[in-house]
Amino acid sequence: MSRQITPTGPEHLQMPKLRAGMDHDFYAPRDTWSVPRLDFGPDVHLGIWLQIAVEWFPLDISGQPFLPIGAPARPWPDSETYTQRDYGNRIGIYRMMDALAARGMTASAFLNARVAQRYPILARYIREAGWDVVAAGLDAGAIHHEGLHEDTERAMIAEALSLLRAERLEPAGWHSPSWSQSTRTPRLLREAGITAMADWANDEAPYAFQTGTGTIASLPAAFELSDREILFARQARLADFEANITAAARRLTREAADSGTPRLLCLNLSPWLMGQPFRINGFERILDMLGGIDGARTVQVADILAASLDLRNG
Q1: How much is the pLDDT for 8?
Q2: Fewer Cβ close by (within 10 Å): the C or N end of the chain?
Q3: Is residue 264 a contact partner of residue 47, using CB atoms and an 8 Å limit?
Q4: CA atoms of 15 and 18, how far apart (whole Å)
Q5: Among residues 61, 64, 57, which one has the least CA distance to residue 147?
Q6: CA distances from 236 to 96, 227, 229, 231, 233 (A)
Q7: What is the pLDDT of residue 174?
Q8: CA–CA gap between residue 258 and residue 273 (Å, rounded)
Q9: What is the DSSP letter of 114?
Q10: What is the pLDDT of residues 164-195, one digit of tens each?
Q11: Which residues pair with 54 in a beta bridge?
Q12: pLDDT tops 60 at residue 3
């Protein structure tokens, strides 16, 4: 029997904040096309933010409220999926680290706290590589959603931060697993001392986000141009993925030249996908293409926050 559909009442048609501009109080309207919003310095026209998704997919992942892309989905124990994702943290990521180091490029580790706990050697390599860390929740299955009790979600954030700090990894920002938030998440992050989050995919530059208990910087997210979305979910060819990134880089570079204002390219990549021996050459070609763009350089969270004119001007 299908679930009964409850009709909405007249209260759902009442929109007390409907007005000119935004119909909420989270952030002010922004004009990317006629107002400069980024300044990386005189010689940088394209910032490249490489977000390396370093995740742990539990074998008993709950799937509540949904299964994240890449999660074990076969009957327990799904050893095929679990061990392939484990491969990314034990093998694939080191190929990616070598490729970046060889080109003098930096990245941000979007790091599940339980990866730091379960793979202390990897945590040490991340520190030594000079990557900054964006706390990516407890693990890939620890989804933040409206069905959580506020105390439970607050405890999840606190535990994630504690586990990372135990490995001497101080988060520069936050990313919720699978880009999922509850209506409370920004406020709880701010209460926990987090000042930047990369969950909302509605801009290409940072902006000030009002949480109700203080301001948090909303950093650009990169779901659409991620390998898990293009290679895994859509089953596109590696050549097509490379072409997508090349097209994005060229377009943003041209816009930067036309407007006289730098642009920011975000790429979210997964070691269990791009660190495979048959794909790592593609990753290296992407880095070489990006490194060959005049005025392009890799940036991290602190660079992006410092470059934000929206945040700088209040």
Answers
A1: 66
A2: N
A3: yes
A4: 5
A5: 64
A6: 21, 9, 9, 5, 8
A7: 98
A8: 35
A9: H
A10: 999 999 999 999 999 999 999 999 999 999 99
A11: 111
A12: no
Mean pLDDT of 41-63: 96
- What pLDDT digit, counting tens, does each position of 197-222 carry? 999 999 999 999 999 999 999 999 98
Closest to 60 in 3D by CA, of 40, 75, 46: 75
Residues 6+ apart with CB under 8 A from 27: 207, 208, 209, 210, 218
Q: Which two tokens stand for residue 120?
A: 């202390």
Tell me the residue length of the chain: 314
**Averaged confidence pLDDT in the chain:** 94
Residue-wise DSSP of 272-297: HHHTSTTTHHHHHHHHHHHHTSTTEE
H-helix segments, the chain: 79-87, 93-102, 113-118, 120-129, 150-166, 185-191, 227, 238-259, 271-274, 280-291, 301-307, 309-312
Q: State which amino acid sits at residue 255.
A: E
Q: At 192, list the tokens.
A: 């926990």
Cα–Cα dist 160/174, whole Å: 10
- CB atoms closer than 10 angstroms to residue 257: 14
The mean per-residue pLDDT over the stretch 151-173 comes to 98
Check if the beta carbon of residue 167 is closer than 8 Å to that of residue 116.
yes
The rounded distance, in Å, linking the Cα atoms of 267 and 265 is 7
Reported pTM: 0.94
- The residues facing 174 across adjacent strands are 135, 197
Residue 7 per-residue DSSP state: P
Q: Which domains does the chain have, with CATH numbers?
A: 46-307 (3.20.20.370)
Task: Give the chain's end-to-end CA distance (angstroms, integer).
Answer: 54
Identity at 146, one-letter amino acid code: E
Burial string for 73-107 (b: 16+ CB within 10 Å, else e) reads: eeeeebeebbebbbebbeebbebbbebbeeeeebb
Q: Map residue 197 onto helix, strand or coil.
A: strand
pLDDT band at 1 (very low <50, low <70, confident <90, very high): very low
Query: pLDDT tens across 271-286, in order?
Result: 999 999 999 999 999 9
